[in-house]
Amino acid sequence: MTLMDAKEGEEYIVKEIVTEDDDLEAFLFSLGCYSGEPITVVSRVRGGCTVSIKDGRYNIDTDLAKAISI
């Protein structure tokens, strides 16, 4: 299941980042989004979603959300 399938307000654990783009993976890692970390979809927005990772909130697009396996 990817982050696009997640319910708003429910906490999930990141299983893996599924991408062949090293820059994308490094970007997500810099946000604190990596295997074993909790992540919550705060809200859905046009073209993606707002997520809570650690103490921060981030808007991520659909491509990023599809790369995050939960």
From TrEMBL:
InterPro entries, per the entry: Fe-transptr_FeoA-like, FeoA_core_dom, Transcriptional_repressor_C
Domain of life (superkingdom): Bacteria
A UniProt-annotated Pfam family: FeoA
Residues of the Ferrous iron transporter FeoA-like domain: 1-70
UniProt-recorded Gene Ontology molecular function terms: transition metal ion binding
Protein name: Ferrous iron transport protein A
The organism of origin for this protein: Mordavella massiliensis
